[in-house]
Amino acid sequence: MTAAQTIFGVHAFRKYHSGQQRKSAINKALFETIAVNLAGLAPEQRDRLRQLDALDAFADLMEDTEFERSISVATGDPKKVRKRFEAVQELFEDLLDHGDA
Known about the structure:
The chain has 6 helices and no strands. The protein is mostly helical. The radius of gyration is 13 Å and the shape is globular. It starts with a helix and ends with a helix.
């Protein structure tokens, strides 16, 4: 939880679009997905994510209509669960592999 707050700031576990100032409500599907994906990382990987611009990368992911629907509508559908977990895992992997501090 601390890692999520450090990485995403006040927008942790919330839908976020680039430049957004207002905090949206905590999204249960995002909470589950981000918490599980962060827990699966090694401590040094979480530390690395803290140094990268993960929030902007997450805003880019939110532009993916299929991802946005996976955290908004019929969130218990197994296909949507897989979509959001895979998308966030890929987001973290891409940041860790290609992100610049």
